[in-house]
Amino acid sequence: MENNNFIHDFINEEIAEGKYRADEIHTRFPPEPNGYLHIGHCKALIIDFGTAKKYGGRCNLRMDDTNPAKEDTEFVDAIQEDIHWLGFDWDDRFFYGSDYFEQTYEIAERLIMSGDAYVCELTPDQFREYRGDLTHPAVSPYRDRPAEESLELFRKMRAGEFPEGSYTLRAKIDLASGNFNMRDPVLYRIRYIDHHRQGKKWCIFPMYDFAHPIQDAIEGITHSLCSLEYEDHRPLYNWVIDHAGLPSRPRQIEFARLNITNTVLSKRYLRYLVENNIVDGWDDPRMPTLCGLRRRGYTPESILDFCDRIGVAKSNSMVDIGLLEHCVREDLNVKSDRRVAVLKPIKLIVDNYPEDKVEYFSLPNNPGNPDAGTRLVPFSRELYIDADDFAEVPPPKFFRLKPDGEVRLMGSYIVKYVGMDKNDDGSIAAIHVTADIETGCGMPADGHKVKGTIHWLSAAHALPISAILYDRLFTEENMNDLPEGKSYIDYLNPDSAIRIDGAYVEPSLADAKHGDRFQFVRTGYFCLDSKNPGVFNRVVSLKGSFKA
Ligand code: ATP
Ligand code: MG
Hints:
Blueprint: H1 6-16, E1 26-29, H2 39-55, E2 58-63, H3 73-85, E3 94-96, H4 101-113, E4 117-120, H5 124-129, H6 147-158, E5 168-171, E6 186-190, E7 204-206, H7 208-218, E8 223-227, H8 234-244, E9 251-255, E10 258-260, H9 267-275, H10 290-296, H11 300-310, E11 317-319, H12 321-335, E12 337-339, E13 341-342, E14 345-350, E15 359-364, E16 374-379, E17 382-386, E18 406-409, E19 414-422, E20 428-435, E21 453-454, E22 456-458, E23 463-470, E24 497-505, E25 517-520, E26 524-528, E27 535-540
Parallel strand pairs: 1-2, 2-3, 8-9, 10-11, 12-25, 14-20, 18-21, 23-27
Antiparallel strand pairs: 4-5, 5-6, 6-7, 13-24, 14-17, 15-16, 17-22, 18-19, 19-20, 23-24, 25-26, 26-27
Helix pairs in contact: 7-8, 11-12
The structure holds adenosine-5'-triphosphate and magnesium ion.
Residues 30-32, 40-41, 43-44, 64, 226-227, 257-258, 265-267 line the site of adenosine-5'-triphosphate.
C-alpha cells in the first residue's frame, strides 16, 4: 500500500512532527459480529491491519457488540478465520466492545455530574418530532433537569425500573447545531434483550457514537480509521473524547467505502439472500463475502492486490468487478497448474490405435513456468473431446476438428477425420479418426501445417466431475442507484451459476484436495469445492474484458 494512501500521508506528518513514534501507531478493526465479512470490510481491515504493519505498530481486533441484536459466536469465529486467511493477526489484542460496558457506564455517570448529560423522557416518536430542522433548533424539555435527578433516573434505568423507549440519556451539546448528530444525541437507551456475552446483565446499552470513541481511547488507539459515512459523526467522536476524561486521544480518519459493480455490499442484503435461500449460504461462491470468495477459489494475494490497486481515497467511487477478476486471473496464471478437463464430452475413437494399448504423454504443468514440472497423461483408443471442438458444419476459419479435417491432440498425435456414428435422435455418438501413429506425435510426414490443437482425455481413465460456471450475481452495474420502486432482488442474474454435470478431468486430479486450484485448459481457473466432492467451481474465465 505504498501508493495513493492519504491516511499514510497524515500519519507521516504526525511522525515527522514528533507526535508519535512509528511503532506507536495503533489501529483497530471493529467488525460487528452480525454477519460474515465481505470485500468492503476487507478493504477496511486491510487499511487497519496494513497501516499498523507498515509502521511496525499494532492493530486490535475488537468485536463491536455494543448493539445487542443479532450477534452470534458463529460470526465471531468466522471473522477471525477470514482475517487470518488474509495473513493478518492481532496477537493477544482481541477484545469485545461489551467488555467496556462498566467503564462506559461510569463515564456516563461522570458526564451527568459534570452537567454534560441528562436523562430525557421523550419517546422515540417525540424525539423525532422535537428534532427541529435546518432553521429550527431541536427542543428538549428535560435539558435543565438537575444533575442529581438525572443520576437517580439513570440508575433506575440501569436497574430495569422503566420500560423500553421511556427514558434515554442524552449528551448536552447544542440543540441548534447544523450537524444533527450534535443536537443532544442519545448516549444510552433501554433495551430488554439478552446480550450474547453479557446475558441479562444490562438493560441499558450505549449508542455506537458514545461507545466507540470510549473503546478506542481505552485501548490506546491512535488512529480510528473508518468509512466515510462516519464523517458527520466525527464532531461527536471528538466531543466524547474531550469529555470522557481518558488519557488517550485517538484521531478518527474516514476513507471511501468500497463499491463494486454488479454487487451489493450491505450485510442486511447479504443476510436476506442467505436467509431466503437465494444463495447457498454466506459462503456461496457468488457472494462477495470473504468466505464466498475463498470457496470460489480466490487467493488472499489476489484480494490484497485488488485492494492495493484501488488505493485509499477520500471520495466514494464504484470499482469495476472486472478488476477483482483480473487480479485473481493474474495470480492464478502464475500459481496454478494446467489440467485437462472436458466439460461437454463427445467420444473420439482412434480407429487405427490398438484396443488394449495405453501410452503416456508428458504435458507441462505450466508452460510459462518450467519449474512447475510435467505430468503423464494416459492416451488410449477411446477419447473424450469437447463438443465445441467439433463442428459438423464448420463456420469460416474453424481450425478445430471438422468433417475431412485434421487437428492436433494437445501434446500428442495429429488425427484425421474418418466419419461419425449418430444416435437415433441425430446427435453424435462418436467421431472416428485415424492418428499419425507412424510418424509419431510430431510433424505430419509431408511437413504440412496443422492449424488447430484441441484437448482430450482417455475415456477409460477420465474422472467424472461436475463444474459450476459462475457469473455476476446481479445484472445491473450500479446496484447502489436503482430506479424508484425497484429492489436489488429484481436484478438477480438467473444465470449466475450454471452447473455442468457429466464433465471429465484427467486422472491426476484423483488426489486433488478441497480448495486446490487449477487452470483447466482453455476453459478457465477452477477450484475444488470445499463442501461438495467432485464439484469444481470456476473462479474466473481465462480472459476478461477488463483492461488493467
Ligand atoms: P454493512 O453496511 O455491510 O452492515 P457495517 O459498516 O455495518 O457494514 P461493520 O461490521 O460495522 O459493518 O464494519 C466494520 C468496518 O468495516 C467498519 O469500520 C466499516 O467502516 C467498514 N466497512 C463496512 N463496509 C465497508 C465498505 N463497503 N467499504 C469500506 N469499509 C467498509
Ligand atoms: Mg457498522
